[in-house]
Design a protein that fits this description.
Layout lengths: L1 H14 L10 H21 L1 H25 L8
Length: 80
């Protein structure tokens, strides 16, 4: 996501010829988009994306369980 934001910002600055970005090569300005594509390819291939999705679902599930236990008046007491 950060690569996309940097890429769009660089693209706008290059197109409008603002600041030092105007003198940079188009290849350099467009490189964050290539880096974003590489990041997404790696994240999908390595399972990073799926792992983060599962962690988020597990966290939401645990919060829902804790909320229901609190609403029923059950507190989780740990046994020694």
């Amino acid at each position: 996501m950060y690569f996309l934001i940097i890429g769009v910002l660089g693209l706008v600055l290059k197109y409008l010829e603002i600041g030092p970005v105007a003198s940079l090569s188009w290849w350099l300005v467009l490189s964050p988009f290539a880096l974003a594509a590489c990041w997404w390819a790696w994240a999908d291939a390595s399972g990073y994306t799926k792992r983060k999705e599962v962690e988020k679902m597990d966290d939401r599930k645990q919060k829902r369980i804790d909320k229901q236990r609190t609403a029923m008046g059950l507190t989780s007491k740990k046994r020694p």
